[in-house]
Write a structure and sequence with these properties.
The protein is mainly α and 116 residues long. The chain has two domains: 51 residues; 52 residues, no CATH class. The chain contains four helices and no strands.
Amino acid sequence: MLKQPAAAAEAVRMRDVRNNLCAVAVIAVLSAVAIPAFAGYAGVEGGPAAASAHSGLVAGFVAHLKREDDEQEVKTLAENQPSLSERQEARERREEADEEEVRPPEAMPEGEQEEG
């Protein structure tokens, strides 16, 4: 038997709706699975190594690396820190420069005045 034209049109509309709903469902399922799976690899802090850093051998290895890095940083800071005499000399030069900026030209001795 042949369907009435109104019933056939209704079937076409339902098929389009069903196809759209299926497409939305597939996208939702893929998003629910794919986004969390890739989120661990995309983030710096949330990577797989960070997640397992608190368990077993990895925790010990990470703690060892952090300790070595801290020790190296302390050594570098100690080597690059100026001595007491260098700090005093730098402070004196800074104070002299500040005094020269504040002192007016007529207060300078005659030998130090700029000509021009």
